[in-house]
Amino acid sequence: MTGPRVVVVDQPGLDPAERVDRAVRQVGIVEALAARALQADVAVGAVPVVIVPEVEGFELGSPAATDPRLVEALVDTLHDIGCGDVVCGFSADTTSRWAGNRDVHALADLLGYRFTTTAGRDYDIVDLGTDLVPADFPEGGVLAGSSLAATWLHAGFRIVFAANRTDPADGYQLALRTVLRALPPTDDHLHHRVAANGGDVVRELLARTPVDLVLVDAIVSSDGSGGSWAPHAVHTDAVMACDDIWLADAVGATRMGLDPATSPLFAHAPSDVGVALDDLTGRLDPWPGFVPPDPIVLSSTRARDATPTWPRLLRPWLQVLDAEAFPLASPLDDRLNRRLAPLFADVDRDVVARTLLATVNGMMATLGSWLETYRTLFDKDAVRRTRLPLGFDPDTHDPDAVDAILPELERLAGLLSGAPERAPGLRWRTVGGATVFDYVRVVPIPFDELVATVDVATTISLMNDYVGGVVVELAHDDRGRPVRQAERNRYLPQPNWMALWGGDPIDVGKIEVVSFEPDRQRLAWKTVTSDNGSAVHDDGIAEFARVRDGTRVTILGRQQFTLPPALAALDLDLVPDLRAHLVTDAYRTFFDRTLANIEATAEGRDVRIGRPLPTVDGPDDPLPSARLEQALEDVLEWFDRASQGHAVHDRQGGDATGDEVDDLGFTHVPGRDARREPPGALDGAAASLAPVLAGLWSGLAETALRDLETLARVP
Predict the structure, then answer these.
(1) What's the CA dihedral at 163, 168, 170, 172 to 10 degrees?
(2) What CA–CA distance (Å, rounded) separates 509 from 494?
(3) Within 13 Å of residue 121, how many CA atoms lie on the same side as its CB?
(4) 508, containing H or E segment
(5) For 560, phi and psi rounded to 5 degrees?
(6) Under DSSP, is residue 515 helix (H, G, I), strand (E, B) or coil?
(7) What is the DSSP letter of 337?
(8) What φ, ψ does residue 558 adopt, rounded to 5°?
(9) How many helices (H) and strands (E) does the chain have?
(10) What's the CA gap between 467 and 465, in Å, rounded?
(11) Closest among 439, 386, 375 to 584, alpha carbons compared
(12) CA 236/CA 510 separation, integer angstroms
């Protein structure tokens, strides 16, 4: 294929399989496969082809999934043009953790894959979550160190066959969503949406394993606000083929009536995607009768899902599904799904349900924001750490310019001449809108001991409230120590009370230089980017120096952070004494805690805050529904035990519960573990009361809905 090319086959009267065949041939697959075979010096039949279809459906024939008959038609076309090594593959996703039969082979069977095409060609369904090999993702990315299935990594030709569907949070989900099914983690939402940004994941996956061809099943599409959790079928009678995955999503979103940038997965699309679409076969106008997601539902869902707990909790409750084919694992999820999913199954055509959904979304978004603020202020171990890409190309910075950072920043010390000491060891003054400061403390740890246990090059990650980042070493000295490096780091809002005003985390990318001397080691850094616009300047030097009583730690810097709008509007410069007090308190607190972290690290203690990042081979993060079920079980058990009382038994008896009484008259009561089933089982009073409470919750929702319907009908 010579360039971006899009083919939309929507002529009336064509069989769906014929549409697939015509689309892939017109987009140039014959030429592309021939070129790939020539490049590998093999015959076309020896080029391994992997097809990744969309499998989000929860019932046979769901428009949220690619039609298996179309995938099989593609397999036949590939064989017709000479391909002999064709497989379909995908990995299990988060839905497999809360619904049954969502493992790869069971799901393929229930969605209608026959493993033999209409023309009698056999094909395999491969689990891309197995047979993993190192993928050699570049250092400094969110996928660094990750593995991929050998089938996908070593494929000679990669095809993504997406479904044409909307989404209540992303706006739409096309090929950029489907290609994530080539990644192995079972809990893909946790790994690729919570621990890391989905747009970063997509960009890095495509850079390592480019997709050669994209098809979109738009025979029967899923439109409206329900997306994959409440799909609404609309006949669009087309198949689209494209040789560029970014362009495929751009054209697909345009035909839905949406801006391609609506989806966060499209965030890193090339700037010229769709700008000059010279090679288009077919139309670009919106699909007839297609309903895009409601803007209010889209906005409120996205705000709600900013708190990761909510989408992980609500998805099983709202998913429209075939309960026999895909039974829900949790009794609580099953009970609530039966009551809630029908209520919100058609929000685009039910104004009351849509209003209720948007209202609940807004309430949950507010509650989530409050919860995050609480964690920032009072429960930092509950904050989620973040996996970040470097976010900039360090090779664009000349090594000589990087080395010049240290003498440039040393000159900041002259700006502090005559500055008063605002707190023990702390001086600062405002210069050009930025705060220039130094902080000096002597820690009672000998210099040689400190530098042997605390790497000066990692000083930034030891600073107070650090929640994530990445360091890429660029050059080393003759002892293998880094002397130039690039870094990105993120901290909680500073000072923490900024969270009350809507303050963003501090997110800064830096280039750095490290120097090692017999009696002094230094790390100097200079800001080059701030992904969320939180910082204008965050430059400085951290120095460890030998002194008689231990090690002198000096931090010299220049910082200028962006204030949240609500606080900026107050203009604290009008109250200089208050501003001076707040700045002093913020710097004193931050660097006192940073010094405590350095000392703790020297003593071998872990100073990191927040919840650990998930790993593919690590323990699963409990789903919110499981935690809710466990909490409900604990509460009901407490009521159960409280109702039995704690009466004192006489020597001869015991009680009706069967507690044992020994010869001395002591009553032996079974311990907690002996009284209950393993965690997750609702038994005894819990089993009887859980459905009652769940029914009460959903009954209240139905009552509220009926009241809203009544109000809506009032003239």
Answers:
(1) 30
(2) 17
(3) 21
(4) strand 506-517
(5) -145, 105
(6) strand
(7) H
(8) -135, 125
(9) 21, 22
(10) 6
(11) 439
(12) 49
Crossing angle for the helix pair 351-378 and 684-713, to the nearest 10 degrees: 130
**Is the N-terminal amide bond of 505 cis, ω within 30° of 0?**
no
Angle of helix 684-713 relative to helix 331-340, nearest 10 degrees, comes to: 20
Beta bridge partners of 550: 547
C-alpha distances in Å from residue 583, one per residue of 385, 449, 644: 26, 33, 57
Measured CA to CA, the distance from residue 91 to residue 183 in angstroms comes to: 7
Cα-Cα-Cα-Cα torsion 267, 270, 275, 281, nearest 10 degrees, comes to -100
Cβ proximity of 189 and 93 under 8 Å:
yes
Q: What are phi and psi of 63, to 5 degrees?
A: -70, -5
Q: Give dist(CA 368, CA 386) in Å, integer.
A: 17
CB atoms near residue 670 (< 10 Å): 12
Measured CA distances, 64 to 77, 145, 229, 289 (Å): 24, 32, 8, 17
336 close to 698: Cβ distance less than 8 angstroms? yes
Locate 240 and state its tokens.
Answer: 């689209």
DSSP secondary structure string, 586-644?
A: HHHHHHHHHHHHHHHHHTT-----SBPPP-TTSPPPPPHHHHHHHHHHHHHHHHHHHHH
Question: What is the rounded distance in angstroms from the CA atom of residue 171 to the CA atom of residue 261?
Answer: 9
**Three-point CA angle 624, 465, 627, nearest 5°:** 10
What are the φ and ψ backbone dihedral angles of 16, each rounded to 5 degrees? -55, -40
Contact 403, 524 (CB under 8 A): no
Q: Tokens 């466990």 appear where?
A: 630
Q: pLDDT of 306-353, one tens digit each?
A: 999 999 999 999 999 999 999 999 999 999 999 999 999 999 999 999
Tell how far CA 142 is from the center of its chain. 11
One-letter identity of residue 9: V
Q: How many residues does the chain have?
A: 715
Q: What is the pLDDT of residues 544-600, one digit of tens each?
A: 999 999 999 999 999 999 988 888 888 888 888 999 999 999 999 999 999 999 999
Taking a C-beta distance cutoff of 8 angstroms, is the pair 455, 611 a contact?
A: no
pLDDT tier at 248, thresholds 50, 70, 90: very high
Tokens, residue 10: 């929507």
Distance CA 256, CA 226 (A): 14
| Bridge partner residues of 147 (DSSP) | 134
CA distance 147 to 143: 8
CA distance linking residue 594 with residue 98, whole number of Å: 41
pTM for the model stands at 0.87
User: What CA–CA distance (Å, rounded) separates 93 from 107?
Assistant: 11
Which run of H or E residues covers position 315?
helix 309-318
**Which of 619, 482, 530, 472 minimizes the C-alpha distance to 144?**
472
| Contacts within 8 Å (CB) and 24+ apart, 663-667 | none
Kind plus residue range of the DSSP H or E element containing 685? helix 684-713
